[in-house]
Here is the input.
Amino acid sequence: MKKKKKVNAAILIIGNEILSGRTQDKNIAFLSNWLNVNCGISVLEVRIIPDVEKTIIKNIRLLSKQFDYVFTTGGIGPTHDDITAASIAKAFGLKYGYHREAFKILESYYGKEKFNDGRKKMAKMPTTAKLIYNPSSAAPGFMTKNVLSFPGVPSILNSMIENCKRYLVRGLMVHSRTLNLFTVESNISKQLGMIQKKYKKFVDIGSYPFFRLGKIGVSVVSRSTSKKKLQEVNKELLILIKSKKLKILKI
Here is the structure.
Protein backbone atom coordinates (compact mmCIF):
# COMPACT_ATOMS: atom_id res chain seq x y z
CA MET A 1 0.00 0.00 0.00
CA LYS A 2 1.47 3.34 -1.10
CA LYS A 3 1.30 6.40 1.12
CA LYS A 4 -0.19 9.83 0.50
CA LYS A 5 -0.70 12.74 2.92
CA LYS A 6 -4.47 13.05 2.90
CA VAL A 7 -6.81 10.46 1.42
CA ASN A 8 -10.59 10.65 1.62
CA ALA A 9 -13.62 8.55 0.80
CA ALA A 10 -17.38 8.57 0.53
CA ILE A 11 -19.72 5.73 1.48
CA LEU A 12 -22.76 5.03 -0.69
CA ILE A 13 -25.34 2.76 0.97
CA ILE A 14 -27.66 1.30 -1.68
CA GLY A 15 -30.92 -0.36 -0.71
CA ASN A 16 -34.64 0.25 -0.35
CA GLU A 17 -34.63 -1.83 2.84
CA ILE A 18 -32.39 0.72 4.57
CA LEU A 19 -34.53 3.69 3.58
CA SER A 20 -37.76 1.94 4.61
CA GLY A 21 -36.36 1.20 8.07
CA ARG A 22 -36.78 -2.55 7.58
CA THR A 23 -33.02 -3.05 7.92
CA GLN A 24 -30.73 -1.07 10.20
CA ASP A 25 -27.39 -0.14 8.62
CA LYS A 26 -24.28 -1.29 10.48
CA ASN A 27 -21.76 -0.78 7.72
CA ILE A 28 -21.19 2.98 8.00
CA ALA A 29 -19.58 2.89 11.44
CA PHE A 30 -17.53 -0.21 10.63
CA LEU A 31 -16.21 1.13 7.31
CA SER A 32 -15.45 4.61 8.66
CA ASN A 33 -13.49 3.23 11.60
CA TRP A 34 -11.68 0.55 9.56
CA LEU A 35 -10.62 3.01 6.87
CA ASN A 36 -9.22 5.52 9.34
CA VAL A 37 -7.48 3.07 11.68
CA ASN A 38 -6.11 0.68 9.05
CA CYS A 39 -5.60 2.91 6.04
CA GLY A 40 -5.53 6.53 7.19
CA ILE A 41 -8.50 7.25 4.92
CA SER A 42 -11.06 9.76 6.19
CA VAL A 43 -14.73 9.32 5.32
CA LEU A 44 -16.07 12.76 4.48
CA GLU A 45 -19.54 11.95 3.18
CA VAL A 46 -22.20 9.23 3.50
CA ARG A 47 -25.29 8.83 1.32
CA ILE A 48 -28.15 6.35 1.43
CA ILE A 49 -30.01 5.84 -1.84
CA PRO A 50 -32.68 3.48 -3.24
CA ASP A 51 -32.24 0.65 -5.75
CA VAL A 52 -32.94 2.96 -8.68
CA GLU A 53 -30.60 2.81 -11.67
CA LYS A 54 -30.62 6.53 -12.52
CA THR A 55 -29.99 7.46 -8.89
CA ILE A 56 -27.10 5.01 -8.55
CA ILE A 57 -25.49 6.19 -11.80
CA LYS A 58 -25.83 9.86 -10.84
CA ASN A 59 -24.26 9.36 -7.41
CA ILE A 60 -21.45 7.11 -8.64
CA ARG A 61 -20.41 9.65 -11.26
CA LEU A 62 -20.54 12.55 -8.82
CA LEU A 63 -18.85 10.94 -5.83
CA SER A 64 -16.11 9.24 -7.86
CA LYS A 65 -15.03 12.69 -9.09
CA GLN A 66 -15.19 14.35 -5.68
CA PHE A 67 -13.41 11.71 -3.56
CA ASP A 68 -10.34 9.51 -3.74
CA TYR A 69 -12.48 6.43 -3.13
CA VAL A 70 -16.15 5.51 -3.04
CA PHE A 71 -17.29 2.47 -1.06
CA THR A 72 -20.69 1.05 -2.00
CA THR A 73 -22.67 -1.52 -0.03
CA GLY A 74 -25.69 -3.47 -1.21
CA GLY A 75 -27.23 -4.49 -4.50
CA ILE A 76 -24.71 -7.08 -5.75
CA GLY A 77 -26.68 -10.23 -4.84
CA PRO A 78 -28.66 -12.73 -6.99
CA THR A 79 -32.11 -11.09 -7.07
CA HIS A 80 -33.88 -8.87 -9.59
CA ASP A 81 -33.42 -5.71 -7.49
CA ASP A 82 -29.66 -6.18 -7.19
CA ILE A 83 -28.69 -3.65 -9.85
CA THR A 84 -25.57 -2.01 -8.40
CA ALA A 85 -23.06 -3.80 -10.64
CA ALA A 86 -24.95 -3.05 -13.86
CA SER A 87 -25.49 0.57 -12.81
CA ILE A 88 -21.78 1.10 -12.07
CA ALA A 89 -20.89 -0.33 -15.48
CA LYS A 90 -23.29 2.17 -17.10
CA ALA A 91 -21.96 5.03 -14.98
CA PHE A 92 -18.47 4.53 -16.43
CA GLY A 93 -19.50 3.32 -19.90
CA LEU A 94 -18.00 -0.14 -19.35
CA LYS A 95 -19.01 -3.56 -20.60
CA TYR A 96 -21.27 -5.46 -18.19
CA GLY A 97 -21.26 -9.25 -18.22
CA TYR A 98 -19.76 -12.35 -16.69
CA HIS A 99 -16.39 -11.67 -15.10
CA ARG A 100 -14.29 -14.71 -16.03
CA GLU A 101 -12.52 -15.15 -12.70
CA ALA A 102 -15.65 -14.42 -10.64
CA PHE A 103 -17.58 -16.99 -12.70
CA LYS A 104 -14.93 -19.66 -12.07
CA ILE A 105 -14.87 -18.91 -8.32
CA LEU A 106 -18.63 -19.26 -7.99
CA GLU A 107 -18.91 -22.30 -10.23
CA SER A 108 -16.25 -24.04 -8.15
CA TYR A 109 -17.96 -23.02 -4.89
CA TYR A 110 -21.47 -24.18 -5.80
CA GLY A 111 -20.68 -26.99 -8.25
CA LYS A 112 -22.04 -27.04 -11.81
CA GLU A 113 -25.37 -28.67 -10.87
CA LYS A 114 -26.23 -26.09 -8.21
CA PHE A 115 -24.82 -23.11 -10.09
CA ASN A 116 -28.20 -21.68 -11.13
CA ASP A 117 -29.02 -18.42 -12.91
CA GLY A 118 -29.40 -16.45 -9.67
CA ARG A 119 -25.95 -17.49 -8.51
CA LYS A 120 -24.48 -16.84 -11.95
CA LYS A 121 -25.82 -13.29 -11.71
CA MET A 122 -23.35 -12.62 -8.87
CA ALA A 123 -20.53 -13.12 -11.39
CA LYS A 124 -21.91 -10.30 -13.55
CA MET A 125 -20.17 -6.96 -13.16
CA PRO A 126 -17.98 -4.59 -15.20
CA THR A 127 -15.89 -7.23 -16.98
CA THR A 128 -12.60 -5.39 -16.35
CA ALA A 129 -13.21 -4.94 -12.60
CA LYS A 130 -10.66 -6.00 -9.98
CA LEU A 131 -12.05 -8.60 -7.59
CA ILE A 132 -12.35 -8.27 -3.81
CA TYR A 133 -12.31 -11.86 -2.57
CA ASN A 134 -15.01 -13.16 -0.26
CA PRO A 135 -14.02 -15.83 2.30
CA SER A 136 -17.57 -16.12 3.68
CA SER A 137 -19.88 -16.83 0.76
CA ALA A 138 -17.54 -16.83 -2.27
CA ALA A 139 -19.37 -14.13 -4.26
CA PRO A 140 -16.68 -11.47 -4.74
CA GLY A 141 -16.96 -7.73 -4.42
CA PHE A 142 -15.21 -5.64 -7.06
CA MET A 143 -13.38 -2.41 -7.75
CA THR A 144 -14.21 -0.27 -10.78
CA LYS A 145 -11.92 2.71 -11.22
CA ASN A 146 -11.97 4.23 -7.68
CA VAL A 147 -15.28 2.63 -6.63
CA LEU A 148 -15.18 -0.44 -4.37
CA SER A 149 -18.40 -2.45 -4.15
CA PHE A 150 -19.34 -4.76 -1.28
CA PRO A 151 -22.43 -6.77 -0.29
CA GLY A 152 -24.74 -5.18 2.24
CA VAL A 153 -24.67 -8.05 4.78
CA PRO A 154 -22.39 -6.73 7.57
CA SER A 155 -20.81 -10.06 8.53
CA ILE A 156 -19.84 -10.78 4.93
CA LEU A 157 -18.54 -7.26 4.31
CA ASN A 158 -16.47 -7.45 7.50
CA SER A 159 -14.87 -10.72 6.39
CA MET A 160 -13.95 -9.25 2.98
CA ILE A 161 -12.62 -5.85 3.92
CA GLU A 162 -8.96 -6.81 4.40
CA ASN A 163 -8.88 -8.07 0.82
CA CYS A 164 -9.27 -4.57 -0.61
CA LYS A 165 -6.19 -3.13 1.12
CA ARG A 166 -3.90 -3.87 -1.81
CA TYR A 167 -5.92 -1.51 -4.02
CA LEU A 168 -5.77 1.46 -1.64
CA VAL A 169 -3.33 4.32 -1.16
CA ARG A 170 -2.66 4.86 2.54
CA GLY A 171 -3.17 8.30 4.02
CA LEU A 172 -2.18 9.81 7.36
CA MET A 173 -4.18 8.46 10.29
CA VAL A 174 -6.46 10.91 12.05
CA HIS A 175 -5.83 10.80 15.82
CA SER A 176 -8.44 11.97 18.30
CA ARG A 177 -8.78 12.91 21.97
CA THR A 178 -11.97 13.28 23.96
CA LEU A 179 -12.63 15.27 27.13
CA ASN A 180 -16.00 14.63 28.77
CA LEU A 181 -17.10 17.57 30.92
CA PHE A 182 -20.04 18.30 33.20
CA THR A 183 -21.07 21.63 31.70
CA VAL A 184 -23.25 23.10 28.96
CA GLU A 185 -21.99 24.04 25.49
CA SER A 186 -22.73 27.73 25.93
CA ASN A 187 -20.34 27.87 28.90
CA ILE A 188 -17.32 26.98 26.77
CA SER A 189 -18.40 27.80 23.21
CA LYS A 190 -16.60 31.16 22.99
CA GLN A 191 -13.27 29.77 24.20
CA LEU A 192 -13.56 26.65 22.01
CA GLY A 193 -14.16 28.90 19.02
CA MET A 194 -10.99 30.86 19.78
CA ILE A 195 -8.90 27.68 20.11
CA GLN A 196 -10.40 26.29 16.90
CA LYS A 197 -9.57 29.51 15.04
CA LYS A 198 -5.97 29.36 16.25
CA TYR A 199 -5.49 25.75 15.09
CA LYS A 200 -7.97 25.62 12.20
CA LYS A 201 -5.35 24.41 9.69
CA PHE A 202 -4.27 21.50 11.86
CA VAL A 203 -7.01 20.40 14.26
CA ASP A 204 -10.79 19.98 14.12
CA ILE A 205 -12.60 20.56 17.43
CA GLY A 206 -16.17 19.45 18.02
CA SER A 207 -18.48 19.62 21.03
CA TYR A 208 -21.25 17.07 21.56
CA PRO A 209 -23.84 17.23 24.37
CA PHE A 210 -24.68 14.17 26.49
CA PHE A 211 -26.86 13.35 29.50
CA ARG A 212 -25.37 11.14 32.22
CA LEU A 213 -25.96 10.55 35.91
CA GLY A 214 -28.76 13.07 35.83
CA LYS A 215 -26.49 15.83 34.56
CA ILE A 216 -25.93 17.55 31.23
CA GLY A 217 -22.42 17.26 29.84
CA VAL A 218 -20.33 18.00 26.78
CA SER A 219 -17.80 15.78 25.02
CA VAL A 220 -15.06 17.92 23.48
CA VAL A 221 -13.43 15.95 20.67
CA SER A 222 -10.29 17.13 18.88
CA ARG A 223 -9.00 15.40 15.73
CA SER A 224 -5.78 15.82 13.78
CA THR A 225 -3.21 13.96 11.68
CA SER A 226 -0.55 15.65 13.84
CA LYS A 227 -0.03 14.25 17.35
CA LYS A 228 2.02 17.32 18.22
CA LYS A 229 -0.74 19.76 17.33
CA LEU A 230 -3.26 17.58 19.13
CA GLN A 231 -1.15 17.78 22.29
CA GLU A 232 -0.94 21.57 21.98
CA VAL A 233 -4.71 21.83 21.68
CA ASN A 234 -5.19 19.45 24.59
CA LYS A 235 -3.00 21.68 26.81
CA GLU A 236 -5.11 24.71 25.94
CA LEU A 237 -8.31 22.77 26.61
CA LEU A 238 -7.01 21.74 30.05
CA ILE A 239 -6.24 25.39 30.84
CA LEU A 240 -9.80 26.28 29.82
CA ILE A 241 -11.22 23.49 31.99
CA LYS A 242 -9.20 24.65 34.99
CA SER A 243 -10.25 28.28 34.53
CA LYS A 244 -13.91 27.25 34.43
CA LYS A 245 -13.45 24.88 37.39
CA LEU A 246 -14.96 22.00 35.43
CA LYS A 247 -14.70 18.29 36.17
CA ILE A 248 -13.52 15.75 33.63
CA LEU A 249 -15.68 12.66 33.56
CA LYS A 250 -14.19 9.29 32.63
CA ILE A 251 -16.63 7.28 30.49
